[in-house]
Specification:
Helix content: 55-70%
Shape: rod-shaped
Structural class: alpha+beta
CATH topology of the largest domain: C8orf32 fold
Strand order of the largest sheet: 5-6-4-3-7
Oligomer: single chain
Distance between the termini: 185 Å
Radius of gyration: 62 Å
Length: 322
């Protein structure tokens, strides 16, 4: 056999051998291929799972970091709250101490109030006793006439506590105030008795009244009262035994009004007087168709119709009592 034929036979033998081996191992190779594919799929799945787990771990790490931050903040707030709680407890103790002091002070004040109330009750009883006093005022004039008037101190105090009307027109109501009428009537009764005893005519009777009022001392409001202008009610002028021009004019008007005369208060510049509507002689003012003859209630010696020179031509306002 030639060498060429031997090479060809050997090549064919190798091919047969390879085919035989391939045929023999083909099922196993296929199995390995499937296993490789399966492993490749598993690797792919595992890679995907790893990526997802990595993302999850990253998210959880961020969440954990946020939670740590939150925990740190809560721990800080807790520490601050603990500090505030300590301060609050300290304040509570302080407040308790202050409350105890206040309760002690309240107890002391209650004792003081009780004592003050007891003293006030005693003072009120003493004041009631004082106000229950009747004051006897004695008046003398013309060296011939004298008169006593009993005035309850409580009545005087009641009038002193009244507000003061400051307009001239409102002083009419002071002259006509009814609460002191009983005491004005005592004077009227005395005047009627003297008029009957001495057989006075109407003008003499009026002059008798104004002479009594003129005998009361002239006093200045700013000296005898807490005000620069302080009109007195009739009972106040009688109790105080004096006053200025409006006080004596209000008193004179009250007396003559209770005697039944038509009288008026006369307002002059910085002065006040009285007018009485009777038949007389001298100076008078006409108002409402009536002649109100002038009565000067300050100074002494002035009779009905007589007027001080400084008021002869002065403007006047008339305020009748009726």
């Amino acid at each position: 056999m030639s060498e060429k034929a031997m090479k060809q036979g050997f090549g064919a033998l190798i091919i047969l051998l390879v085919l035989a081996i391939a045929f023999y191992f083909f099922p196993e190779i296929q199995g390995l291929n499937r296993r490789v594919n399966e492993l490749a799929n598993t690797v792919t799945e595992l890679t995907s799972d790893r990526i997802q787990m990595s993302a999850t771990i990253t998210a959880q790490s961020a969440s954990i970091e946020e939670q740590r931050t939150a925990i740190d903040r809560m721990e800080s707030e807790t520490s601050q709250l603990k500090s505030e709680l300590v301060t609050a407890n300290t304040n509570i103790e302080t407040y308790k101490s202050q409350i105890a002091n206040l309760e002690s002070s309240i107890s002391t004040l209650r004792t003081q109030v009780s004592t003050a109330q007891s003293e006030a009750t005693g003072l009120q009883k003493r004041l009631d006793n004082i106000l229950g006093i009747n004051v006897i005022q004695h008046y003398e004039w013309l060296k011939t006439f004298s008169w006593d008037l009993i005035i309850p101190l409580s009545l005087y105090v009641e009038y002193k506590e009244r507000p003061r009307p400051l307009s001239f027109s409102s002083w009419v109501n002071m002259a006509k105030d009814p609460k002191d009428d009983a005491y004005i009537d005592e004077m009227v009764k005395y005047v009627d008795e003297m008029a009957a005893r001495y057989n006075y005519n109407e003008q003499q009777k009026i002059n008798f009244v104004v002479t009594f009022v003129q005998s009361l001392p002239y006093t200045v409001d700013s000296v005898t009262t807490p005000a620069n202008e302080y009109p007195r009610y009739p009972i106040e002028t009688l109790f105080d035994r004096g006053g200025d021009c409006e006080d004596t004019s209000i008193l004179t008007a009250a007396l003559l009004d209770r005697m039944g005369y038509d009288v008026a208060l006369i307002e002059l510049p910085k002065h006040m007087a009285v007018g009485v509507a009777v038949n007389a002689f001298g100076r008078y003012y006409t108002y409402g168709g009536k002649r109100y003859f002038y009565l000067e209630t300050t100074g002494e010696g002035w009779k009905i119709g007589e007027m001080p020179n400084e008021y002869l031509n002065a403007p006047a306002y008339i305020y009748p009592l009726r």
